[in-house]
Amino acid sequence: MSPLRDRSQPAPGSDRVVDAAASGTAPLLAVRDLAVDFATDRGRVSAVRGVSFTLQAGQSLAILGESGSGKSVTGKALLGLIDPPGRVRGAIEFEGENIVGWDEARLNTVRGPGVSMVFQDSFDSLNPVYSVGSQVTELLRVRQGLDRRVARERAVALMRQVGIPAAEERLKDYPHQFSGGMRQRMCIALAIALRPRLLIADEPTTALDVTVQAGILRLVRQLQRETRMALIFVTHDLAVARLVASEVAVMYAGRIVERGGIDDIYRRPAHPYTRALLASQPDTARSWSDLRPIAGSPPDKAGIVPGCAFHPRCPIATDRCTTEEPDLRALSADRLSRCHHAEEVLDAAH
Amino acid sequence: MLIFLSRRLVSSVIALVGVVVVVFFLGRLTGSPAHLYLPQGASQEMADNFNRTHGFNDPLWQQFIRFVGDVAHLDFGTSIWQQRPALTAVTSVFPQTLLLAVVAMTLSIAVAAVLGCLAAARRFGPVDKLITFGSLACASIPDFWFALVGVLFLAVHLGVVPTSGQSDLSSWILPVATLMLAPVGVLTQVVRGAMIEALGSGYVQSARARGLAHRRLVYRHALRNAALPIISVAGDRAAGLVNGAVIVGTVFAWPGIGTVMVDAVLNRDFAVIQAGVFVIGLGIVLLNVLVDLTYAVADPRVRVS
């Protein structure tokens, strides 16, 4: 066990993040032992199994993982968007208040000006039967009590802010009249309309052309810097995450398996899963032989294997990994890894 | 949109012409009206006379050409039974049927919208189960049975409504209820399904993520989208009210197109049958145009393209 390990309550399976900035100011968001499961015909299925992290105001964190890792469910839980048969346990403290278990009316006070979200599918996220202008002004009028004229002016300003050309003329256009990139910009305008202190972006560029992706990413980063809002960027693409976030939490099978500074992790991963993820990305490969898909598939959520959840796919798994589940432990002041062999992985990267 | 509408209109008119032609020949398969109108044991001479007066002795193709020529001037001939122009016989009662249909359809949509939304918002709960069961029962009960039982119970036993005819407001209750039965049953299910889909959609979820109140999500964001399937099914059901009009005409002696058509068929009153089919067909063509227009109002993707 690492001497750096900071664990006041050694409950198995719970994450405790050593946050460099945690000393002093209270965090904007503190997630503790977040667990989300869904009742299905085959019993309860866990999507998130004990996730803990904190986020300071203005900080940008990428949550990285494959499909089914629980990253999107985590994002939705932060907004209270998990409905029955889903169940949320643990604590989500936003500005010091635990929002888990709040009713819709109370959650609605946080949604918008507190936490806001941009979803993956921009076409699906906008109501097809209302013009984009009416969707923005509706929000401003209902939530901020602006009158029609002021709301309209503010809507145009928002559309300009997210880089929609000829904003004034486009107010009356419908979502299907926008291109994919412009539509996602419109979704971002809606998400930042109430000036949120935390923006969650759930794979906002996955459905877009590569040429458009860069523009959206630049916009997100620029907005985050200008408005000083915190950002949680959910993605499966580490290269994309690097463009917008300074920190990363890698998720696997409903848990955080590695956390740290994003450039650090990009250079020297401390978990075999992160390493495999990097090796499977086309941008880091110089030739086809460098490109390695991760063998096997993520575990079925209904039946998590004993020991380390990643061991069936892990190239360096030992007997210990098949029986004893590793804790998320600190390797240095700003690096956490959930691997028995984290030091080896870290050293091997050099 | 205009091109789409005119294309729809042209195909509808072709269908209407086809129906009128088919009815012309089918009607004549029922036999000669002469045997029906002349006293029993009438001589062949009398029958020939009757047929000559009404033009039934000409070869069928000649009758048909004459019919087409007349219809081109909107002349559907004279009713043998009613002794007045067939078109007048039909149009004089059509408003009664139309009024009944409009009342029944409007109420059906209103009732189905409320029940469907309630069921969708309480999906799989007891309220939803009750509404689903009730609407399936409504859609399954034969309307003529419902009409007869209604008369037996409300009119004969309780005496709160008249057994037949059109008088004060209470005489509307059973005809309207009979016509509403199937549309309410089917539409409630359509509203429920469309609302469940709309409430689970991405735009409702993202509107919810922006903190809009539940009621606003249901009635502004979801219902407007759910309106599209509701409109098309409601249009289809409205056309189906023609069947209901016949039931209402027969069971309640409602003075409408149902009664006139049934009488015309029983009396081999070809002119009225043809005029009736034409008017009903025209009504359904106009209804379809109305449905298309409503669709365009409700859905910008139809309107702007």
Automatic annotation (TrEMBL), chain B:
Keywords recorded for this protein, A-Z: Cell membrane, Membrane, Transmembrane, Transmembrane helix, Transport
Localization (cell): Cell membrane
Alphabetical list of InterPro entries matching this protein: BPD_transp_1_N (IPR045621), MetI-like (IPR000515), MetI-like_sf (IPR035906)
Gene3D superfamilies hit by this protein: MetI-like
Membrane topology: Multi-pass membrane protein
SUPFAM superfamilies on file: MetI-like (SSF161098)
Superkingdom, taxonomy of origin: Bacteria
CDD domains for this protein: TM_PBP2
Ranges of residues in domain ABC transmembrane type-1: 94-291
GO cellular component: plasma membrane
A GO molecular-function annotation: dipeptide transmembrane transporter activity
Membrane spanning stretches: 9-29, 98-121, 133-160, 172-191, 238-257, 277-298
Protein family: Belongs to the binding-protein-dependent transport system permease family.
PANTHER family: DIPEPTIDE TRANSPORT SYSTEM PERMEASE PROTEIN DPPB-RELATED (PTHR43163)
Protein's UniProt name: ABC transporter permease
Natural source organism: Streptomyces viridochromogenes
